Amino acid sequence: MTFKRRVYKGIGITGRKSSGRLHFINNKSIDSSDKTAINVGAELIKLENARKKAIENVWTIEKNAREKIGHSEAQIFEIHAMLLEDEDLNDAIENKIKGGKSVEKAINEASEEYASMLLDIGDEYLSARASDIRDIASQLINALCDNTKNSKKTDTEPYILVANDLTPSQTVMLDKEQILGFVTALGTPSSHTAILARAMNIPAIVGAGEIDKLYDGSFCLLDSLKGEIIINPTEEEIEEFNKEKDKQSKIAIEHERYLRSIMNKPAVTGSGHKIMIYANVGDVTEIEPALSNGCEGIGLLRSEFLYLSKSTYPTEAQLFSVYKDIAEKMDGRRVIIRTLDIGADKKADYFNLENEENPALGLRGIRLCLERTDVFKTQIRAILRASYYGRVAIMIPMICCEDEIIKTKELIEKCKAELRNESLMFDEKIEIGIMIETPASAIMSDRLSKHVNFFSVGTNDLAQYTLAVDRQNSKVSNLCEQNYEPILRLIEMSAKAIKKKGGWIGICGEMAADLSLTQSFASMGIDELSVSTPYLLGVRGKVSECK
Ligand code: PEP
Ligand code: MG
Predict the structure, then answer these.
(1) pTM here?
(2) CATH, residue 193
(3) pLDDT tens across 178-210, in order?
(4) Is the CB of 437 under 6 A from ligand 1?
(5) What is the DSSP string of 190-249?
């Protein structure tokens, strides 16, 4: 059956266009209420089919993860495959079905009981397995949905993904070969999902509202500049869209040729102020593309993304190996590792964080790290050890007061002393910086500046906390647009403070890539702009046009 043409509007993320068939993923839990009378035999067959499909999916994910992230990270999916075949869990699900529960309810209940039992034992390893059990339960439910909803997507055809929302960890795991773009009902341009989409250069629209599931499998035109999705477009619209897409790509190729010609020249304004052009990355796979787009350093390694793609705490050895790899690949260029910024929208089950009323104002970033000093020290030791292999700097997120910097520096000193005792090498003079992403840190920047070598402004959070606009809420995200003045004043105040103490200042939030602000940043004497890889060339070009 074909459905009528329909247009949805949201907020475009990468400015790119894409077309293809829509594929809905069900990331809301499906209705698991018990049906009055169930057919036990039919439910058992559904379970068996879902189990086979889930096992198949897990091995595909394992293969992707092994190729893209590495063997040790992929091991978790081997564990998931084993758990899907676990006899105790399967017996428990089947017994619930035989006792009259629907397959969905049986999976949810049996897995929850199993997970709680593991958590009650109080062993760290088994607690981590509890979140694996929950993970495979949702994979079984998804496989069940796939079986029942008869999606019109074929497995080989790339598609435009539609979801209610995507978590940062789901976005990290997206298969770039298979995804032509994505549309989410929720989300805002400065959410971490949008940031990841930009880094991955995926055409995306967030905050589009709920798209009618009847359109699963329908052809659509996605314009992430206009923030528009046209489902079942007319022939004329397709023709116009393709013409515009061709024209845009010709202009883009021409412009890129010019930008590439200046790629290896320093970015200097007309008045002689040099700005370092750095890249924001989430893992080692982003280093090569950043370098081939002329990045002079890494201004923000969002180190928490490495934690989000795991199901238990990474070890010091695992972290060290990734950081060392990045430091070596950057070959003497600066690599700023932002310490763990878990909390708010970035959650990993194994941290077992309590639900908070206002997570963005809660136990997040440095606040959490100073409570979980064992986890924090593991990361600090890994960063310090990697500093021996390149020019690594440490950056602390979510700072609000001097005390947080003092406590963190004490922990860094403790880790340094341990490493010296163990004869492990590190850079004794490693630079330490903080993020300016709360109004308090900007207002107190004169005091904070005496403790650190540099500031980096996280405009995504600075805007959220200054303008009282939740960066996750699409209903208010327009209130940030064009209300830059308060943020610019705070940045200028911070720039003056750190420069007075002989330090330097960068900007690594999304505003760093906004070319309408480059002149203001240059005039304030900003020393570094750190942006996602697709924006590196454009920002470099814009700096050289500044006065
Ligand atoms: C910011 O807040 O601007 C920032 C760079 O950090 P994140 O987006 O990861 O919160
Ligand atoms: Mg931030």
Answers:
(1) 0.71
(2) 3.50.30.10
(3) 899 999 998 888 887 888 888 788 999 999 999
(4) yes
(5) TSHHHHHHHHHT--EEE---PPPGGGTT-EEEEETTTTEEEES--HHHHHHHHHHHHHHH
